[in-house]
Design a protein that fits this description.
Oligomer: single chain
CATH architecture of the largest domain: 2-Layer Sandwich
Helix content: 25-40%
Distance between the termini: 94 Å
Structural class: alpha+beta
Radius of gyration: 31 Å
Order of helices and strands: EHEEHEHHEEEEEHEEEHHHH
Number of helices: 9
Number of domains: 2
CATH topology of the largest domain: Alpha-D-Glucose-1,6-Bisphosphate, Chain A, domain 4
CATH class of the largest domain: Alpha Beta
Strand content: 25-35%
Largest sheet: 12 strands, mixed
Length: 390
Amino acid sequence: MTTTVQLCEQDGGGASPPGVGPLVRLWGLDPSDLPPTVTPHKELAPFLTAVFQEAVPFIEDVPAASSSGGSSWRPDGIEKFPSSKACVNLFKRVVPAKDLKLLVKSRADIKGVKASRVRAETWNLRRSVHENAEIPGAAGWDEWYRCFKENHAQAEKDFSPTVLSFRRMKSWKCKDLKIVQGDHTWTNITMRWEESVHKLPFPLKNRVFPVLQITASDQNHVDGAEFVVVQIALRDEDAPGRNDAVLGAYTSVERLRRIANGVEWIMGTVCDAGGVVPRVVQRLALAGQIARDVDMFLSWIAEERKKPVARDEADSEHAQEEAQGEAQGGAHIEASSRHDTEETREETQTREQIQEKEQKEQTREQNQEQTQEQTAQPSGQASQQQNQQE
């Protein structure tokens, strides 16, 4: 049964500066504050509602072109790549440190963050509009949806050479939720704890970025052809040990939707790679990195189309989850299947051993019978046979 939630103003325990919320931030969330994976979807609604309320308006005033026009995002250049027919418009937005410090001081629900250590957040964003077609230099809507709504982390690993691996730590069941937010009605909601390991140039160590990833489709858009992907950094102190990497922080808001002249792709992010890399150096490099993602994805998807691989239910999100054993039932089925296979293998080996033993026993008995017959023959006959043989 689907549960509909009407979005309303959140009571966060204090006033927030305009346009600044506590959740979709670089300081992220502590994994210990995440609800258990068995939490009923109704109880996840307040948290998800707060995330949508914060993330969606944050990118909704992105200019349609390279002019600001009263937007909080200022133009930061245009990039063109060989694998993309569309140009990539770049933008920047700085969330002042004073606003973030005020937020920390005024809200009791922000845990583990000291106002004295809070710095300004510099967000980099790109916007591009691509032809809605499965041709070189572009991609069809089904490809966008499959790669970024259903299999975001896997797709990034496949098309980006710097992503070494990803791991899904936890997954929550919230597909039956429907959250109404103004003109949007968010459905097909997913929430996952994932971590990805990125390669940095030598001699820097690899970086691991744990995130809480939330995706949702907008039912109110024409044919439901709009979805968002929100990724919030997780302060997981165990991640570096699991991956032999330095802990980084990554938060992003991404939206893909079909519009009159194609598919619009917007992605804004704030990132801290941690370690010894100065933040000013990271900020200078980040804009170019997110722009190149467009080129790498379109180059990769063009090659994927050439592969004779059937795109059936195994590519769907549900099949992916079952294959990875996310659900306990799926894990149980997988374990049972593996156990049955092992039993079958053992039974086969046992039958073969028995057959081999029986064959040896039969041969031994035949040899004994022949020996007994030869022994029972008269000595003369035995001598005659021996002479004939000689």
